Amino acid sequence: MICVVPQASVSVAPNLACLGEAFIVLLLQHPDPDYSAAYVVIETDAHDGLKGYGLTFTLGKGTEVVVCAVNALSTHVVHKDMEEIVSNFRNFYRQLTSDGQLRWIGPEKGAVHLATAAILNAVWDLWAKQEGKPLWKLLVDMDPKQLLSCIDFRYITDALTEEEAYEILVNSLLGKKEREEQMLTRGYPAYTTSCAWLGYSDQQLKQLCTKALKDGWTRFKVKVGADLQDDIHRCRLIREMIGPDNILMLDANQRWEVKEAIEWVTKLAEFKPLWIEEPTSPDDVLGHAAISKALAPLGIGVATGEQCHNKVIFKQLLQAKALSYLQIDSCRLGSVNENLAVLLMAKKFQIPVCPHAGGVGLCELVQHLILFDYIAISGSLENRMCEYVDHLHEHFKYPVIIKKACYMPPQDAGYSTEMKEDSTRKYQFPQGEVWQKLLSGHKIHLP
């Protein structure tokens, strides 16, 4: 039987003080981020002593709302049998997302869906641990019918039927073993967002790019949208640093109106960006479609998805030809279950998946999903890469391993969601030691 232990929000933002100026000006739309997470622990009465850990990434205020939603949803989880959940996962997923009252403040979006992700992430972590496998391997080893039994196809059958999804998985069995061996040997290609945040001086940009190139990075993302002339200057500097053959991407973090996005990015086209990420509101499907159509002749794609509410919005983006690169998020959608549906839709529409990561634990989680995607669904690395941001990994028991700018497949059982006890104790809000000192006005000495 299951017991859910929702934690008060864990905020590790104070630790950003040791990262220098990396987050002085983080994002135009999120100017004062307080990197946090709603952290869920699932305990059972099994004698194996295993626990499932889940989280969803937040930016500070509002995390308590997600924690309240976790508590409200916990009635659907407590006293359930784990075997009954995973043997009929589709039904359990629908039960969580279709609560007759809670869906009124969704449905399948906002705080209640973030809470759903946190709970389900913990369930998947526990299931993988019970099977003694990392999450990606648990998925890879499932037969197509078992995988499909975890997915709720409601509202997306006009884009992808269960029969079509089954055919995709069966067709991908060819070469599956070889792709798994390839990942174990080489890892999955990553790109870095750590070199070109807004607010960096030219000297910082040069230093960070030089180090990244030395470490083997060939794909670089540049934050844009504050000032056009500054963007031109920074893009020119980065392009000169990385050379013509390495890949450059742009990220506006929802900054622009549709027309403004087209005009702005057109003026940055000389720097040959692969994509412009989140050019406008994440909810504006037709706006993304207009931007995508306008920029296509310039060879610039549109990437979005990190703040996409659910599989239905992804369906519409794909149907409207509104994106060229699809960016799933392991904590924004309804955990693994909903991400599986989106990965399969992306395969049908032949759109490469390039996951969003960074934040608190997003790299740790999403690596499992993209490894599975390559091995068991897409079978391609063309124009595919996974975001990597080098911060806050020290708070996790099983942090990501990057070698030669690639994610190396995790070997520890679970979903890599478990945080170190010392970190959760110190950074728990507001009871943790770090926050008690901060709130009392004392100086904090961080490593």
From TrEMBL:
Keyword Lyase included in the entry's annotation: yes
One protein family per Pfam: MR_MLE_C
Entry EC no(s): 4.2.1.68
GO biological process, one term: carbohydrate catabolic process
PROSITE patterns in the cross-refs: MR_MLE_2 (PS00909)
Swiss-Prot/TrEMBL keywords: Lyase, Magnesium, Metal-binding
Alphabetical list of SMART domains matching this protein: MR_MLE
Obligatory cofactor(s): Mg(2+)
Top enzyme class: lyase
Coiled coil feature spans: none
Boundaries of every Mandelate racemase/muconate lactonizing enzyme C-terminal domain copy: 202-298
Superkingdom of the source species: Eukaryota
Keyword Transcription: no
Catalyzed reactions per annotation: L-fuconate = 2-dehydro-3-deoxy-L-fuconate + H2O
GO MF term (any one): magnesium ion binding
Parts of the chain that traverse the membrane: none
PANTHER family with a match to the protein in the record: ENOLASE SUPERFAMILY, MANDELATE RACEMASE (PTHR13794), MITOCHONDRIAL ENOLASE SUPERFAMILY MEMBER 1 (PTHR13794:SF58)
Family: Belongs to the mandelate racemase/muconate lactonizing enzyme family. ENOSF1 subfamily.
Stated name of the protein: Mitochondrial enolase superfamily member 1
Organism placement in taxonomy: Eukaryota, Metazoa, Chordata, Craniata, Vertebrata
